[in-house]
Structures are given as structure tokens and as C-alpha cells.
Amino acid sequence: MSQKKNILLVEDIQEERIALHETLQEWGFDVTAVGDGPSGLARFKADEYHLVISDLKMPHMDGIEFLSKIKEEKEEVPVVLISGYGTVEYAVEAMKQGAMDFLVKPFSPRVMEGLVKKAIGNGTCSKNDKYFASVENPIITNNGRLLQLLDLARTVAGSKAPVFIQGESGTGKELFARFIHNQGGGRERPFVALNCAALPSGLLESELFGHEKGAFTGAVSRKLGKFELAEGGTILLDEISEMDINLQAKLLRVLQESEVDRVGGRAPIPIDVRVIATTNRDIDTTVKAGKFRPDLYYRLNVIPIKLPPLRERREDILPLAEYFVRKYNQIDNRNAQGFTEDGAQALVQMDWPGNVRELENVTERAVLLCRGVRIGREDLFLDVAPPPGDQSSFPMTGSLKEMEKTMIFRALDQTDGNRTHAANLLGISVRTLRNKLHEYRERMDAI
Predict the structure, then answer these.
(1) Which of 147, 206, 233, 427 allows an S-S link to 190, with CB 3.0 to 4.6 Å?
(2) Residue 4: how many CB atoms within 10 A of its CB?
């Protein structure tokens, strides 16, 4: 650019304001950064700006009010709103008020750079010029309960208190954990995730706490554990209820003493790590059954969060599906234009036992197989899992759990027991399928 363009940045969180200020300057722009709406409005009236970037949730004046006042002053100046809350309501209101776009935190620098260059490269931006940024993993919701949990997460994000997230498979537990990590100012610090169900007990101990050279056969060198790798940041212990009871005792000591003992080590190593644990099980039942230590549960359950399943937040089904359509249009170079009326109705009617993950998988498949401009019912479900109403091929009898079980075993029959193929047919992950089968085995053992 022959002449630097001016950007007004309004962000009340100091560290985020500084980080974005520095990033925009590195891209070659002149940036004025302030901490609230009234200050931003005063600067906007005093100087010339080519772009305004503003947070949504701010004291004194929120982003929507700030946006409307900016548009009253100079209609042609593009405005981008950013927020940690990816709600459709906010996004729609922002667009109505004339925003160029609405970005959900955390967003990648690449997305912001493309958006800024799009706005400033043209100098102006029409109200109708929509730019759908490919923001990775936004939390999209209009559900009151989930919005309350997001508020809770932001409130506790800056602390070191352990968080215990419960929820069915596919409800977004890891996504929520990352949200807490990022909101706590840890975006530049490590976020280390470990699936406790994926490793046998002996190997899991080494993965968690590390080992010294020669500690056991095959230990040819020292290895740092996940706790040490997460130093200063967050460790996510995914599906912690699957951890062996003996290893739980060692984990409890780590949490109490803030130090780890490597396998074969001579001295404990101090750590500074925020712990977030998740489970898809009813943890109270697991504790009563003697499969999870109550003292470890109490130590982890300082901040309890229970995510609602998708069937209890039906208002989010269509907005999520539309987001996934845009996402996979970009990834797979498709041009699906949303859903037909019967396709949308089928989505909302489904109970989604695999939750958001299942919805994403089904939508991805529909984007790839869509035979028309819009995605219809026939593109969504093929011949595997007809939506409610098609009682000729899938009788609606029994409880939801029994119907879910029937669908799973039918898919396994059709794929000759191949779990990967069955999971693909059902639109769920292999892990979700494995967890469901494990649940069915436990029920049989209890009879």
C-alpha cells in the first residue's frame, strides 16, 4: 500500500487489545486502540478511519449500540464486531445494524487478516457485502442454559480452579474446555489434551507424568509427561472416568501437591497447570459403583459444568447446521445453499443421539451428496437413519434409548460389524459408537 490506512480498535480486555493492536500494526496499518465505546466514538468523530473493529460485550456501551452510533456518523465506514459469544441473535442484529461481519473469538490471524484486507482494499463496504469468515470451532448458541454456562466459564477462566465438564458424547466438551483456556488469557500458553480412554493404564501413567531413561523396557530416553508439557497452561483429561482406579490415586496427589513424579524418577517436579476434566458418564453413578474415587471427584469438581444435549437446545440445530454447510462448502469446494423446507424440518425433528458431532457429520455428508441447490431430507439421511415420520422403514416404538440401540445394531449388521463403516453410516464418530457399545455391555452385565 502506498499510504497506510487507519483502523480504530475498541476492546475492553487489555491483553486482547494489545495483542490485536500489535498484530494489525505488523500488517502495516495505523491503529488507534481504546478500551470502551464512548472513547471509541469520540476518537471516531475526531479522526478519519477506514475500518472499525469493536468487541461486543463492553462496559458503558455495548458493541451493537456503538455500531449504530458509528453508522449514524459515517454510513460508509465498515465495522467488524468480535465476541466470545457465537450466538446467531447477536450476529443477525449486527448485520441488521450494518456490520460488515461478526467474528467469534478465538479466531485465527489468517481470518482477521483476510477480512481487514477485504474491507480496506475496497475502502468501503456495502451493507449487503457479507463475508463468511472460516472461524475455527465457534460456540454457536441461542440456548439460555448454554449462554449461562458461557458466562460462568468466562467468570472462572482467569482462575486456576479445576473444572469438571459433564455431557453426552458430541456435546462439545473439549470445545468448551478450549473456550475456558482462551478466555483465561492462555491463548499463547499450552493447551494439552489427553484421552484417558484411549490408552492402557501403564502407558497412560507415562503419558501423564513422563518417565526417565531406563525406567522400564523400551524407555530408551527421558520423556516429559503431558503435565510438564502443559506448564503454565491447561491440561484436558478427556473421558477421565475411564481412568484406572489405581492411577486415579496418583493423579489426586498431583492435584493436591502441584508436582509430578516421573516413572523411574528420583524427585518430584513442581508444576503450574490448570486442570479441566470431562466425562460422558453419569459421574455420581460411577462414584457409587466404586469405579471413580470420590476424593478425586471432589477435587476436580470445583467448577462443575454440565452441557445440555442437542435435543434440549433445538433452537441451535438449524444455525449449527447452516454453519457446517458454510464450513464444508469451503473445505470441499461445494456450493450448497442451505436447506429445503423439508430438510430443515427433518433436522429439527431428529433427537441427535450423537449431538453436535453427529449433526456435523451428517451435514458434511449432505454437502458432498447434495443433488440440488439446497439440501433436502433425502440428502441428509439416505437409507440408514430415516427421520421421524418414515414409520414404514423405522417404526417409532419403544423409548428413545431403545430406538438408538436398534439403529446402532442395524448399522453394524449392514456393515458386517465394521465399526468405522457403521459410524460413518450413522453420522457419528467411532469413539461415540464404541462408548455406546460399552454402555450396552454394562447394562447386560448388570442384569
Answers:
(1) 233
(2) 13
